[in-house]
Amino acid sequence: MRNQLAPLPEGSRRRRRARFTLVLAVALAVHHAPAHAQVRATDDALESFVQRVVGLWSSSDVTALVDLLPSDNRVVLDTGSGIENANGRHAAAALRALFSESETLDTRAVRVTVASTRPARGFGELDWTYRARGSRSELSRSVYIAAAWEDDAWRITELRLMP
User: Fold this and answer.
1) I need a labelling partner for 112 at 20 to 30 A (CA). Which of 11, 12, 100, 161 fits?
2) What digits encode the pLDDT tens for the residues 69-113?
3) What is the dihedral of CA 45, 46, 51, 57, to 10 degrees?
4) Residue 91 maps to which CATH number?
5) What is the C-alpha to C-alpha distance for residues 108 and 14, in angstroms, rounded to an integer?
């Protein structure tokens, strides 16, 4: 003979269903709260990172910019002569050449976006105002910076001058 439970009275069913719904709602809220906090922390950290890059770019600090490359020392690079995969030494040489030909007048972040949180990736766009050495004409270019979170810090994975 099968063991059958007696049906619950209607009021008991409602209380059980309400309790289950409440527990489910709390579990979902708790599960998603850390993810939202993580996105906010990631967003703030990326904003700070991009502002740091703005300062380094403004001061033409090639060494500090190259220090922000990932541990594999590789970056997708375009300083105006085409996109290439470069190592740190090549990136440093290309940036030195770029900065030796240009006088920075202003650099500012115009966009910072977290693209994903797992793995943490994002990008920033800089507005770079400069002039060629010896010239009075002001020029402006967008600089695209892609970044990835590695070893508890943001790292530059891509650096491109946009047309």
Assistant:
1) 100
2) 999 999 999 998 899 999 999 999 999 999 999 999 999 999 999
3) 130
4) 3.10.450.50
5) 59
